């Protein structure tokens, strides 16, 4: 078969809450993202003059304007160990222009050895004030708050407990994780990278794996993330980009494309032994997609591990159905000229000959065949009829989480439930054309 369906399993229980967890931070700096292993890797890339290091060094030593100067400068300091480099990052953080909580936290944590006592005190006070005023709604904001609390832990009377406990128990477990397990798109795709910075920081410092609160979502995420890119690469002056799905009008957002790649690097670093992660590593290790611009290269240099083996992503499914989210993606091949079909967050898109076509509900009435699967789109959410002759049938655009009477020629009437996106998955006898009728059951 040329396709396979992602099997989503609810495996394992959430980590115990309450008395078994300690939200106080006592780890040694650097605490944020630069574990001892990753710090050795970035220094080794410097010593070996790798392609990523050469590009990063060229921009930094040449005085290029970096979109995230605190992040880039602090990382460059950690890779080189040169005090003047660290001082420059600290001076930026102490300036009036520096208001980004995440970058302030990274500079405070990574550039400690380069700061004198007066600078450390001033930056600590500034970071505390910025943290106190920081909003706390979405993943980017919560991740930045977590990084700041961890970086500041030695200055806080409770060692960061109040902020971190609220993030983990209230925002994450009582809110976002429950929504993710229910199939709700609680984390926008463009915020997945920020989520993984949060996951790394919490696990590295508190030994808590937040994925355990939404196992179905995270089990499918690596493959879902890869297959949800359009087939054609996008040529930019600095490098080629793979473009992730989007539903707005206009040209792709290259910052989102860069963060999509950064998120994949962070996923690989979080669990490098997982099966689907090895396909993602194969997807990432193509130098023509290496981010060479000022925004992307620090992420590329921080996370990429070219010494880790990967598997060819051409072995990933041509048809991917994520029952946990309702996402559905299909392509005719893994070549760049493939025809691609995506159904996500209630949107149906077709990508062909370098163009995205957003289809209205019921527009794709003719069956679309990919390998041994056929994709059908319901014109009427209440009742629809089809003919199909494929072993696996996917009916899109029905009502999410609803029960339907399904009648297949020469088979008994049966009850089937759609997934979080409104998709029915049916298995048919091989090589037999048959009629299919679906009708929503009354409540």
Characterise this structure.
The chain folds into 2 domains: 18-314, Glycosyltransferase (Alpha/alpha barrel); 319-440, Immunoglobulin-like (Sandwich). Helices cover 39% and strands 16% of the residues. The protein is built from 13 helices and 15 strands. A hairpin with a 5-residue loop joins strand 12 (403-408) and strand 13 (414-417). Helix 2 packs across helix 13, helix 4 (83-94) packs antiparallel against helix 5 and helix 11 (254-270) packs parallel to helix 13.
Keywords:
39% helix, 443 residues, 15 strands, Glycosyltransferase, four-stranded mixed beta sheet, disordered N terminus, 2 domains, five-stranded antiparallel beta sheet, elongated
Mind sketching the topology for me?
Layout: H1 36-47, H2 51-61, H3 69-80, H4 83-94, H5 101-110, H6 117-133, H7 139-151, H8 161-181, H9 192-206, H10 215-227, E1 234-235, E2 240-241, H11 254-270, H12 275-284, H13 296-303, E3 319-322, E4 327-331, E5 340-344, E6 347-352, E7 355-359, E8 368-370, E9 373-377, E10 383-388, E11 392-396, E12 403-408, E13 414-417, E14 424-427, E15 434-440
Parallel strand pairs: 9-11
Antiparallel strand pairs: 1-2, 3-4, 4-5, 5-6, 6-7, 8-9, 10-15, 11-14, 12-13, 12-15
Helix pairs in contact: 2-13, 3-4, 3-5, 4-5, 5-6, 5-7, 7-8, 7-9, 9-11, 11-12, 11-13
